[in-house]
Design brief:
Elements (H helix, E strand, L loop, with lengths): L4 H4 L2 H4 L3 H8 L3 E5 L4 E3 L7 E7 L2 E6 L5 E7 L4 E2 L1 H6 L6 E4 L3 E7 H10 L1 H27 L2 H11 L2 E4 L2 E5 L4 H8 L3 H13 L3 E4 L2 E4 L2 H8 L1
Helix pairs in contact: 5-6, 7-9, 7-10, 8-9
Length: 223
């Protein structure tokens, strides 16, 4: 994988001038991570920033009762490990590859030096974290103010879609029980809500592939 892809295709680096991008790219090294492998675990010190090029990563937070809650998924073009870089301290979550992942890896100490030379990297990292915080606040509001079918409709509409003519399809990025965890419900509640959407003619389910049959209806339901 060309190292410059880790720079030119990632928002936190894309705004740099070409010379600065080359400097950043020289500090990156590619890494392939198998599905199910942890980049790091909750409570560990993290010394690397991972820029995803292919694959998806889930971030989970362990609760005092021993259960795990999925708090976010990370897609290509996004980064993992930025919070310990900016805030310090151990990781407050575990980062796990859902599928095979190709990433560019930056050591925190090297990246900290680059951030000193190029303050825009810091600004863009903080901007990305701010947007995620706003997304998290909206998600919390949806979890507390909408029923499960509405939450699921909103989630499906937010997924990347493959469009061919009038055919719109999405793929669940995680197993259904993991999507249920992300949405804050039991797997049984998730399955019932998905069945309700299918019965109403809003979606058609085939394993992890879901056809969005009525975008207007889903949008109205999601509110």
């Amino acid at each position: 994988m060309p190292q410059d892809l880790c720079v030119t295709q990632v928002p936190i680096f894309a705004g740099l001038d070409p010379e600065a991008q080359q400097q950043v790219a020289s500090c990156a090294h590619p890494e392939m991570v198998e599905a199910g492998h942890d980049f790091y675990r909750q409570g560990e010190e993290v010394g690397q920033l991972f820029v995803l090029h292919e694959g998806t990563v889930k971030l989970t937070h362990g609760r005092a009762d021993g259960t795990q809650r999925i708090v976010r998924t990370v897609a290509p073009g996004q980064v993992v490990g930025e919070h310990p870089l900016l805030a310090g301290g151990p990781a407050d979550h575990t980062a796990t590859a859902i599928e095979p992942v190709v990433a560019c890896v930056f050591q925190h100490d090297q990246l900290a030096g680059l951030m000193g030379e190029h303050p825009r990297i810091t600004r863009d990292l903080l901007g990305a974290m701010s947007r995620r915080l706003a997304d998290a606040e909206q998600r919390i509001a949806r979890l507390t103010s909408t029923d499960m079918a509405a939450r699921l409709a909103d989630y499906l509409l937010d997924l990347p879609a493959a469009v061919q003519g009038r055919d719109v399809r999405v793929s669940l990025p995680m197993r259904k029980r993991e999507v249920a965890s992300y949405l804050g419900v039991t797997p049984e509640s998730f399955s019932r809500a998905l069945a309700r959407l299918e019965k109403r003619g809003l979606v058609e389910v085939s394993g992890a592939e879901i056809a969005l049959l009525d975008l207007d209806g889903l949008t109205e339901l999601a509110g």
